Every structure is written in C-alpha cells, then in structure tokens.
Amino acid sequence: MRIRLQRRRDGRHPRAPAVAFSLLWRLLRFPNFAVSTYLTVGAYAALVLNHGVRASIELAWLGALVVTGAVALVVDRIAFRPMRDRRPFSLAIASIGVAFVLENVVRFIWGNDFRSYDVPVTRGMSVAGLRVGREQLLILGVAVVLMALAQAFLLRTRLASRCARPPTTRCWRRSRASRPSA
C-alpha cells in the first residue's frame, strides 16, 4: 500500500503541463504545443535567480512566474496574434515552431549540461508511512492555490465566460437558424 501511494505521489508531476495545455486549449481555441517549453524557460529563469542573484528557491519561483508570463505574452504578440483569424491548425503548427525556437535559445544560452538548484538538503517527514519532503508540500500547496484562482477566474469573469463558449456552438446555431423549415 505504501509503495502504491509513493508511486501515486511521484506520478503527479506530468499532470501540471497537461492541465496548462487543456486550459490554454479551452481559452485560446488552439493546441499550444509550446506549453512545456514555457515551463523550461521558467525553470531556467528560476535557476538564474537562485544561482546568480542568490535568491531563495521560493523567490526564484515567483520570479520565474513573472519571467515566464512575460515570455508567453511576447510570444503571443509576435507569433500568435497576427495569426488569430487563421484556422486552429495553423496556430498549432506555429506553436510547434515557437517550441523549437525557445528550446534552442535555452540550449544556446545554458547548454545541455546537468544543472541543479541551490536548495538546502532537508530530511523528508513521514506522514502515514509516506515520505514527503518540505518542497513537495510547498509545491502541492501552491498548485492548489493557483488552480483555485484559475477556477475562480474561469467561473467569475466576463472575459473567461466569453472565451469558454465553444465556437462550434455559435456556428451550429447559425446554421440551424438559416436552414429553411420543411
């Protein structure tokens, strides 16, 4: 049982990009394949802040959020906004190109070597026979708060309600309204 819980805990890491991918798909109406590359840019921004500025890992994470958001806005303005009136397939292909460009910029700047954050080594605590580290609890807490904020945004703002309606619904209603009755 304990091994199963441990594997379940370790398997949750790939879920964050999947949630980001599905949220972006729902809001922007195209599959943005550059999501994982944005996460890579954020990881290296946190690394620079953690090693270069000697910021704590928590402050480095916050700085990485700002840097990643800025990179995503710049990429949207340069690559995606001029193509907004195109079909989703064109935007998906553009997002693959954006992913290639960003990945190669990261490789050009930092190379392919192994890197690590400067974090103090702490001993994990045991909760119901499950070994959990302080960082894992912090990541879980931040993820829950951010997901709650995203959910509140999607349910309570006019911008999100405008974006959340699938475009096919409008097309379907128009086609039924313009069809002559038998």
Count of domain modules: 1
- Treating each run of at least 4 consecutive H or I residues as one helix, how many helices? 8
> Approximately how much helix is present in the residues?
over 70%
Order of helix and strand elements from N to C terminus: HHHHHEEHHH
Biggest β-sheet strands, sense, barrel: 2 strands, antiparallel
Descriptive overview:
The protein has 182 residues and is mostly helical. It is 71% helix and 3% strand. A two-stranded antiparallel ribbon has the order 1-2. Strand 1 and strand 2 form a beta hairpin. The chain is globular, with a radius of gyration of 21 Å. About 6% of the residues have low confidence.
Give a nutshell description of this structure:
By secondary structure, this protein is mainly alpha-helical.
Features:
182 residues; mainly alpha; two-stranded antiparallel sheet; 8 helices; 71% helix; 3% strand; globular
Blueprint (SSEs and pairs):
Blueprint: H1 2-10, H2 15-28, H3 35-51, H4 57-80, H5 88-110, E1 125-127, E2 130-132, H6 134-156, H7 158-164, H8 167-178
Antiparallel strand pairs: 1-2
Helix pairs in contact: 3-4, 3-5, 6-7
